[in-house]
Amino acid sequence: MTGFVAGLILFLSVHSISIVAPQWRDRIVERIGLRPWQAVYALVSILGLILIIRGYSDLRNQTAILYMLPRWVHAISSMLMLPVFPLLLASFLPGIVRTMVAGHPTLVAVKFWALAHLLANGSVADVLLFGSILAWAVINRISLKKRPGRRILMAPPSPRNDLIVVIGGLVIYTLMLRGGHAWLIGMPLVLR
Fold first, then answer.
1. pLDDT, tens digit (0-9, with 9 covering 90-100), for 89-108
2. Residues whose CB falls within 8 Å of the CB of residue 38, separated by 6 or more in sequence, listed in order
């Protein structure tokens, strides 16, 4: 549990710097440069992610169950996941889909992802993981209204981007449903 919680703290802390200390972040970037900042940011994120994945893998079947929703809720969870992959792609491929989403498409995708997983999973480890990420995404979205957004590297705008976003997102979603989740995450999906 210690490694899991440490991973969550590392990962969410580094992703919260722009929320709680944007001026500090800007001063560090001025001092050391953007690339070194990005390298440190990436390394801390990856370390946090590794600790989260290992810890969650060890804990997911060992922690107490806080709630079990009816099986039909899994269908709702699956439907909530439907926009996740198109939204993630829209974050980097500007087009109509990106402009339709108020705010940041990645944060909207993360909120859908976390909520879907909270509905489908009710152990202590699940609530810690998905609940903390959902809370972070909500706080981050609120903070974006009060701070300037950062420039995101993305493809040039194009009508083709929407086609890629929708078709690519649905293909990824279908692959996850058809065994990709079990292969990538180690947990088969329950779709009853």
1. 988 888 887 777 766 888 99
2. none
CA distance 169 to 87: 8
Domain termination residue (choose one: 33, 59, 85): 59
d(CA 106, CA 150): 13
Closest CA to 44 of 11, 84, 70, 3: 11
180 is in which domain, residue-wise?
Answer: 65-192
pTM (2 decimals)? 0.84
The answer to whether 135 and 141 have CB atoms below 8 angstroms apart is no
Q: With contact defined as beta carbons under 8 Å apart, do 75 and 120 qualify? A: no
Cβ neighbours, 10 Å, residue 139: 14
Q: What total of structural domains would you count in the chain?
A: 2
Q: How far apart are CA 144 and CA 168, in angstroms?
A: 28
| Strand residue runs (E) in 12-71 | none
List, in order, residues 6 or more apart from 79 with CB less than 8 Å away: none
pLDDT in tens, 13-58: 999 998 888 889 889 999 999 899 999 999 999 999 999 988 988 8
Cα(55)–Cα(66) distance, integer angstroms: 18
